[in-house]
Amino acid sequence: MTATTDTREITYAEAVREALGQAMESDDRVFLFGEDVGTYGGAFGVTGDLVHRFGEDRVRDTPISELGIVGAAVGAALAGMRPIVEIQFSDFTAQAMDQIVNQAAKIHFMLGGAAEVPMVLRAPGGSGTGAAAQHSQSLEAWFAHIPGLKVVMPATVADAKGLLLAAIDDPNPVVVLEHKLLYKQSGPAPQEATRTPLGKAAVRRTGTDLTIVATGVMVSRALEAAEQLAAEGITATVVDPRTLKPLDEQTIVDTVTATGRALLVQEAPRSGGFMSEVSAMLCDSPAFGYLRAPVRRLCGLDVPIPYAPQLERAAVPQVPDIVAEATKLVREW
Amino acid sequence: MTATTDTREITYAEAVREALGQAMESDDRVFLFGEDVGTYGGAFGVTGDLVHRFGEDRVRDTPISELGIVGAAVGAALAGMRPIVEIQFSDFTAQAMDQIVNQAAKIHFMLGGAAEVPMVLRAPGGSGTGAAAQHSQSLEAWFAHIPGLKVVMPATVADAKGLLLAAIDDPNPVVVLEHKLLYKQSGPAPQEATRTPLGKAAVRRTGTDLTIVATGVMVSRALEAAEQLAAEGITATVVDPRTLKPLDEQTIVDTVTATGRALLVQEAPRSGGFMSEVSAMLCDSPAFGYLRAPVRRLCGLDVPIPYAPQLERAAVPQVPDIVAEATKLVREW
Amino acid sequence: MDLVKDAETATSALTTMWTIRRFEEAVDDLFARGLMHGTMHLSIGQEAVPTGACLALREGDYITSTHRGHGHCIAKGAQLDRMMAELLAKETGYCRGRGGSMHIADVATGNLGANGIVAGGVPIAAGAGLAVKMRGQSHAVLSFFGDGAVNEGAWHEGVNLAAIWDLPVVFVCENNKYGMSMSVNRASKVDNLADRAAAYGIPGVTVDGNDPQEVHDAVDEAVERARAGNGPSLIEAVTYRWKGHSKSDKNLYRSREEIDSWREQDPITRFETAVLHQQTLTESELAACRDAARDAVRAAIRTANAAPDASADELLSAVYSGGKQ
Amino acid sequence: MDLVKDAETATSALTTMWTIRRFEEAVDDLFARGLMHGTMHLSIGQEAVPTGACLALREGDYITSTHRGHGHCIAKGAQLDRMMAELLAKETGYCRGRGGSMHIADVATGNLGANGIVAGGVPIAAGAGLAVKMRGQSHAVLSFFGDGAVNEGAWHEGVNLAAIWDLPVVFVCENNKYGMSMSVNRASKVDNLADRAAAYGIPGVTVDGNDPQEVHDAVDEAVERARAGNGPSLIEAVTYRWKGHSKSDKNLYRSREEIDSWREQDPITRFETAVLHQQTLTESELAACRDAARDAVRAAIRTANAAPDASADELLSAVYSGGKQ
Ligand SMILES: Cc1ncc(C[n+]2csc(CCOP(=O)(O)OP(=O)(O)O)c2C)c(N)n1
Ligand SMILES: Cc1ncc(C[n+]2csc(CCOP(=O)(O)OP(=O)(O)O)c2C)c(N)n1
Ligand SMILES: [Mg+2]
Ligand SMILES: [Mg+2]
User: Which keywords, in A-to-Z order, does the entry hold (chains A, B) (predicted)?
Assistant: First the structure.
């Protein structure tokens, strides 16, 4: 993302809203629907005033029927529209998995290329709000395993806007996993409708001792940890894949080759999480020969997200955990 | 599984049926329901004549409503029963993901241990029958990522029986992923109700040059490949994890430590598949120091399963692919 | 539209029904002879439903179909040779051999696709209806599904969305009495599945699904309603599948007598009798319809057989669309 | 059971309603003061529904509840201190601090749990009903859900299963007019949600959800039906939530006047007036109910506050059950 003259500080939620607004302005086929996206402005306030700008037709409240909503998006996309669906919490994609996975993801291939399903599914994931196990999951690994889906996890304000715009442009179904804790975070983003290309990782910081690969809210925690590590004389490269599918393997391989150590940080439970894929990819890549240490994952515990704040914090990596793990990795290997 | 005097050859489908029958005989709380499990005998003939033995109450046909069925199993389990649900094709678990993942998997933890959900969900996965993309998926990675679920993939006739019996005993929700191509395969299984303990891998064959870890239908392909490799002077250890969650990491680590090379074979698409977890686990285990070669995955292509037989075969690993990949791994490293 | 009294329409309807019948008999035969792969779901005995229904449609209208979708596809105007090529796993098939019977679509004629997922097409139809409505068009969307589909959550959610937004969708339930082996009477407690329409505040009607005229009239009225912006309808067409659910079916759940009694209600024979009775067509004109269907199916098989097998070369690049040009 | 004329029942009903009210007012306050974590959904204004409904239940009966479940939990007999401890993230909470407001359950009293998933409890209730029926017991299962839940596939599938198997389940829809911001009139086209019962061949009735007697009578009849093996019923209790959906709610979707008009229909005031009018209880007896509720809630807060915080030590070992002993 190159800085442009019209860059200003806005929140992540505002960035998403701005992208939605710009996409709807420039393309009649784009519309938005989901539970409480209209007058309410979205469960997390993301859609805000869009209904007043674009009307109830294009910013459409739905009943509570995630499967039906996503299915309707598939149908609208097949019939030439560019629907954007909001699912209030990414946990409720469980309700809609058939339409996401068995329909949206497969139709283009299954029909021999005769049709495409240009739709976007936006949903916030992650813990940290005390919403407990059914409202706090990080399910990106599910989607990243499904051929036919593209998956992005914007970690910055600029990417919240840029990746969403690119997702809306894409002729394939794209799952955009936002993060609840990021919505209120501020950061720079261009006013104009600049795309963040899908499939390109961002190197957020460069160091020599290890490479930290992190997704979602873990990107800012990794950067904070990298600050602290620097004070102790350990410098880290921090890579934010941004797009999980298709994954920019090259950037990860190159940075890990350069540092010889990899710490992979995700919020989701360790077992079978997305970082397992990154690790496996690294261990069968040219980087393997350059590894000075085992590829380490720092992940959420293999537990449902608990309600109590102290338990919830303990369940997912925090900045000190990243610092500790990185230090260990560098000092011991 | 120690051979017992009453071991005879039966098919995998018969083994499942026998386990179901024995469990229902010995425990009134056990019952079976799902689409066409009664008179029809199950879409793949697995339940067969059970309805005649146990009646329509305990071998219960359902309407086509996977979410409702699994939800009803959760409720029945909470209320003290031991339900076993059959989902006709594992692809249709997509319909039921909310009840599997947001309810069954989490209730015990979320309720602070005050309740348990002893239920079994059986579903056949895999390709090879020309049923195309919506009827051929291998979705084990989804379940293995969810804390609170246990996941097994029986690869032999004896395990089809033994793992299912252990799953029915277990006080937690267990997903049993059978394989369509195995149903008609014959093999030895004890007549008596012998349990295969959950969480214990099976070393199916021992060798010195590499360890092949394989799941589901890939186990027999790996064994066949190992035969052919042996003829070329390459000997392989073949490990069948059997239980994917909780995974018997120790057996995998030990065998890979011994051979120094690992080839991980699954039918599911590579990206984010279960073998990515195995690879990541190995690369951060004591085996790492003993690796003579990168940990290699041989997986299904990252494509939906196509219909045409030649395309379908090309989409997932076949015996010659395993032989070729193993040979390369051993010869090149 | 009078299917029975108008010669041209009668010819068209009869030819369509015979084409479906002959096509599926051919498929049945190819399977039995091991020349066809995978699985199949035949709609023999149900030909009047797609035939009567699709006669109410015009260019620009959409349909969504099911696992038992050959009839819908043919009635909506698909090319037989490309259908057959798909089933025979040829590169020239509608899906280039990647979809097979359960995924044939013909987007050009508005057929958004068969679906291997029971009720999977229902919310998709609602979405297509939403697209039509948002563009201010007057097209209709016709969604076919079976009696088994109405107990799926997807069906409930899709119908409700269409209802609240007054979408131009016609929901056509082919009640062939069974969802696989589950009798419709065991799967729900309502007398007629059309009664469920009341739960969504939309009209519902039950018709004789072996009479293409009855089907047509009900669908036509619903399509007009849809085009006029008055929202969706539910039509239950009662019919019967003669063959097993799929090749694995041993028919344990229904009796020989039941099957025979429905065979006596053959929609094609009934229609031919009616047409003859009304003297709309002569015996030899009927025979001509039959021959045309047979010849078309034979030609389709020949063309399909001559086509190249589907190629595995481009699998990986076929997963994502690069965008329409 | 006459809630208004029988002094003991009136006292019980009134105390329950006041307890729910005071409990939730306390929760509201604790949240506002930053002493409580997470999110919350208050049922203030809806107290008559769980109160009237649960009076029809007895030991061995089950309920399933919702995200807005404090009232159900209290009416089914849960301990206030363990509820409060859960909300305050204490080790002594019903879920040991792992569940919070949306997951309080009290399996001992038959409360199978609140549920963070809209309609999530509906198929679970059907399953509990199936367990009861298979064991030949005469317990009933009462499933609470909101007006928003009836458009979920889970609801449709769960109700249908209960219907076809004649399960002893009473489906109680708390129609508080909105699913979050979505007005019930926009979310479905039926006049009364109870009309949907017809789609499943079960009885459906709409009652005044601010009158515990009306709720009770309808539920009681349905419970008897269930116990007698005659299957499920759907009861729609029309009521209103005074507070926002959750703490993020700015109430943009409804008017001050609408809220005020419903506040005038306060179920507690109405019940007190009726009880006074019938001279079942005196003013001071009413005051005693109120005080008892207030004191119980205060005591619960005290007990909960004194309890140890939930511990993160055993998280990993808490995921799987080792089996009941
Ligand atoms: C979601 C889902 N569940 C189950 C199946 C398996 N299945 C395929 S067709 C069928 C029966 C469908 O019955 P109905 O809707 O009446 O259509 P019919 O086969 O009678 O035409 C079933 C159970 C499926 N394909 N999808
Ligand atoms: C499956 C699912 N979708 C969406 C939500 C978010 N959500 C929580 S409560 C709610 C509204 C529920 O409305 P209703 O059923 O009427 O209950 P009420 O809140 O009015 O008591 C929504 C949309 C959810 N929790 N679960
Ligand atoms: Mg049917
Ligand atoms: Mg409500």
Answer: Oxidoreductase, Pyruvate, Thiamine pyrophosphate
